[in-house]
Design brief:
This protein is mostly helical. It is 50% helix and 4% strand. The protein has 5 helices and 2 strands. The longest helix is centred in the middle third of the chain and has 25 residues, at 77-101.
């Protein structure tokens, strides 16, 4: 008897065709029509657009894009630098998720613990410069802090989506720690940007 194929589209990300993935390259067309039936193609391999790894890659891409929007605003150079480095790191994380998705042996950029330590240092410095928070705060005291609060919330979605991928045990543990720290980084940056503004706490009324 031929085994029945699973109808759970989140279980398997792709076909049996395996190929390497290019980290860099050119796209000849903005659209190809190849994905009209719900599949994405990487080299010769097709993957379902609803699989968990594709969802995680999309969430990472969305976070990176929101960071790009904030980077275009009138923000100070240090925040610009922090945002750009996070964007760089997110691209590296995407390459690791893609390698897991494709079950591929292609070489991905290294992701070392110092990247986690870098953002922990930023968080610690901000925390030591601000009075401790005793209550939740309502977002929106100014534009930059509001964007950072949006990024804080979005980064939590990103972390959850990455943790759902089937072969999460293959993901670099420093990447998992980094994604966990991102929400704290954005929260700290938001409070720093709002330090000269009165922030309100929820009244629960």
């Amino acid at each position: 008897m031929t085994p029945r194929r699973s109808t759970d589209r989140t279980r398997d990300c792709g076909s049996r065709n395996r190929s390497s993935i290019l980290l860099e390259g050119t796209m000849s067309n903005f659209y190809t029509r190849r994905g009209d039936k719900g599949k994405s193609y990487v080299g010769k391999k097709s993957v379902s657009k609803t699989c968990l790894e594709i969802e995680a890659l999309g969430q990472l891409d969305e976070l990176n894009s929101i960071l790009g929007v904030l980077k275009t605003k009138k923000i100070h150079k240090q925040l610009q630098k922090i945002i750009h480095q996070v964007q760089e790191n997110l691209f590296t994380i995407q390459s690791h998720v893609a390698a897991i998705m494709l079950d591929s042996k292609f070489k991905v950029p290294e992701f070392k613990v110092h990247k986690v330590e870098e953002i922990e240092k930023i968080i610690d410095e901000i925390e030591s410069s601000l009075p401790p928070l005793k209550k939740f705060v309502i977002s929106g005291s100014n534009q930059t802090s509001a964007w950072l609060d949006l990024l804080r919330a979005k980064s939590r979605n990103v972390e959850r989506s990455v943790l759902k991928i089937k072969k999460i045990n293959k993901l670099n543990r420093d990447i998992k720690a980094y994604l966990n720290r991102l929400s704290s980084l954005f929260f700290a940056l938001a409070r720093q940007e709002a330090r000269n503004k009165k922030e309100h706490s929820p009244s629960y009324k």
